Amino acid sequence: MQRVCFLLKVRPERLAEYRERHRDVWPEMREALSRTGWHNYSLFLRDDGLLVGYLETEDFEAAQKAMAETEVNARWQAEMAPLFEGLDGRPDEGMVPLTEVFHLD
Length: 105
What we know:
There is one protein chain. Helix content is 35%, strand content 24%. The chain has helices at residues 15-23, 27-35, 60-68, 71-80, and strands at residues 2-9, 39-45, 50-57, 96-97. β2 (39-45) and β3 form a beta hairpin. The longest helix has 10 residues, at 71-80. 10% of the residues are buried. The mean pLDDT is 96.
């Protein structure tokens, strides 16, 4: 199982909206994430807008590709994009994966 951690930046003035949107993620979005291989997926948000995402998957590239092909993801990304800063495209295309340097099992 591949562990993936990534960073994004939420606009500080949109933090409340970002949190609210994630209190009730669409059921079809949750189902699509699970179906396309996103497991144990968590998002952590710092008060300055730093967003840290973590997930486990068999193949991150394949999971991203499969998710990108879903209609629900296209709708979600379009609605979420204005909440982020420093992106040239969709939030799911702007993830910056970190290199794992230590893991304690």
